[in-house]
From TrEMBL:
The keyword Hydrolase applies. Keywords: Glycosidase, Hydrolase. Pfam families: Glyco_hydro_39. InterPro entries: GH, GH39_cat, Glyco_hydro_39, Glycosyl_Hydrolase_39. This is Beta-xylosidase. It comes from Mucilaginibacter roseus. Gene3D superfamilies: Glycosidases (3.20.20.80), Glycosyl hydrolase domain, family 39 (2.60.40.1500). SUPFAM superfamilies: (Trans)glycosidases (SSF51445), Glycosyl hydrolase domain (SSF51011). Belongs to the glycosyl hydrolase 39 family. Residues 58-486 form the Glycosyl hydrolases family 39 N-terminal catalytic domain.
């Protein structure tokens, strides 16, 4: 059971080393049995490091009056130090364009806020470089510095990738100019560290006709196209990256989720990679894999995003990751990771409805799904359920039917068995408890310890506790302590069991959108 979930990302790089950013990264590093990979935007953007929504900067590259490059790695170092010191790894994004290199340097800094047109964020950082040799040298110097600071072995374990969603608003050049951008970046990286791993292209809307065309042309360029930087054939490609997003909306005033587009994106990305002999076995990374597309669009401006604070986000996450595993198995794809583009937003209103894992240092229910996943050791094993919606149906229609999706994801190691259960439906409507009969077979131990962990309205849920407090925007220190405790994963059962003929049967009651983990240890 490859930990494809241990990948996270966010737009605002300067949150990384701020108070709540460090706290959350520490929690993510501790919940995972393997190093967590982290991706963030704007690592090469010009500015003073001030954090803001959908904005960040490091001032890594400026020029003097004569046009000579000036490199300053201080802010990037503080970001990567925060990761490496916690045993985490960068999925290092080479972008965006420094102001001094941009072909359209003005306007550059934006001041976007929720409710503003999304295109307001697209400024001088989104344009091609005016000098590709300087762009290559910037990447070379960055990677060379990284090796000097962290060591060759450490940097060899990272992944690097160029830009973000070049088929969308993030790139104001042509397709060929993007391929040129990639070639020069890859050449600079490989000159600094030949064994460094680089990939692309983090396309948006992977399932769509235009994105498929973009991705195929990019892969074919890397396989057999003329390299703009070297003049040789092909360009380095060590991983294939693409994006996958769902589509929640309001239906008669109620939230309706839709994971079908997200899973269709993932299926399409796998199929494209596997259609080429040169890429079919490469690692696949879903560079952003989420219920929808704008993490900084809160529920005040986008009411369909109100799912983010409570357990609906939790059950969606559990049910969708199970299908990612199913797709990878069916397609025999080398799915290495799926980046949840969800982090935290520093100094913002409590439970504003951002797509984040914590609010003001208090964990949201969804974070506890990742804590559960981190407890699942060993290899994935078969789960059968008479209420788990078939993969093909979910990929086509999500879970819109009369019955909810009650399914499981299970793993077994030498001394543990773990089964995650969920009760998921696309619609945010109340429903009665469901009693799940959980039968576990094939056990060889004569006795075991059984723990059941629960995420629902009553457990592992700081949001419900906050609402009962009266939804304070200035909670007291005592209230914050209570909320922090409520945000942790709740164990609702701890007992001893004795399998009979290698089997045990449990009953687990699940609220609508609840997620449970049954953990056996012997």
């Amino acid at each position: 059971m490859k930990p494809i979930w241990a990948w996270f990302g966010y737009d605002e790089p300067n949150y990384t080393y701020m108070k709540d950013g460090k706290k959350l990264l520490t929690e993510l590093s501790k919940l995972s049995p393997v190093p967590v990979y982290v991706r963030t935007h704007s690592l090469l953007v010009t500015g003073d490091g001030t954090a803001a929504l959908k904005w960040g900067s490091t001032n890594a590259y400026t020029e003097d009056a004569s046009g000579k490059p000036i490199y300053n790695w201080a802010i990037i170092d503080s970001i990567f130090d925060t990761y490496v010191n916690r045993g985490m790894k960068p999925l290092a994004q080479i972008g965006f364009m420094p102001q001094a290199l941009s072909t359209h340097p003005e306007p550059y800094r934006h001041y976007w806020k929720p409710g503003d047109p999304y295109n307001d964020i697209i400024t001088g950082w989104a344009y091609p470089p005016k000098d590709y040799d300087k762009w290559r040298e910037l990447v070379y110097q960055w990677v060379k510095h990284s090796v000097e600071r962290y060591g060759q072995k450490e940097v060899e374990s990272w992944y690097w990738e160029v830009w973000n969603e070049p088929n969308g608003a993030y790139w104001k050049g042509t397709r060929e100019e993007f391929f040129k951008l990639y070639d020069y970046a890859a050449d600079g990286l490989k000159k600094a560290l030949p064994t460094a791993k680089i990939g692309g292209i983090n396309i948006a809307g992977t399932r769509t006709k235009g994105a498929i065309e973009w991705t195929r042309q990019f892969i074919e360029h890397c396989i057999s196209g003329k390299n703009y930087a070297t003049g040789r054939v092909g360009s380095p490609l060590d991983a294939v990256l693409f994006h996958a997003k769902g589509w929640p909306r309001l239906v008669n005033g109620n939230i309706r989720m839709d994971m079908a587009p997200q899973l269709q994106d993932i299926r399409t990305g796998m199929e494209i990679a596997q259609s080429y002999q040169q890429t079919k076995n490469l690692p696949l990374i879903v560079g952003e894999s989420d219920p929808e597309g704008c993490a900084a669009c809160g529920m005040a401006t986008n009411p369909e995003n109100a799912y983010r604070n409570g357990v609906m986000y939790s059950s969606y996450t559990a049910a969708s990751f199970a299908r990612k595993y199913e797709l990878a198995t069916r397609k025999k794809a080398n799915l290495l990771g799926a980046v949840s583009w969800s982090f935290e937003f520093e100094d913002q209103p409590w439970f504003y409805g951002f797509r984040d894992l914590a609010t003001n240092g208090v964990d949201k229910p969804v974070l506890n799904v990742f804590r559960m996943l981190g407890m699942m050791k060993g290899g994935r094993v078969q789960v059968q359920s008479n209420r788990m919606v078939a993969l093909d149906s979910v990929v086509k229609n999500s879970v819109h039917g009369a019955l909810s999706d009650i399914g499981g994801l299970a793993a077994k190691s030498k001394q543990t068995a773990s089964i995650m259960l969920w009760n998921y439906h696309d619609d945010d409507k109340p429903a009665a408890y469901e009693t799940v009969s959980l039968q576990i077979a094939g056990l060889t131990a004569k006795k075991a310890s059984l723990s059941i962990y629960m995420i629902d309205k009553n457990n592992s849920n700081a949001y419900e506790v906050w609402k009962k407090m009266g939804s304070p925007q200035n909670p007291t220190a005592a209230q914050i302590t209570e909320l922090e405790k409520a945000g942790q994963l709740s164990r609702i059962l701890n007992s001893k069991v004795k399998p009979k003929a290698g089997k045990i049967t449990l009953e687990v009651k699940l609220q609508r959108h609840a997620v449970a983990l049954a953990l056996l240890e012997w």
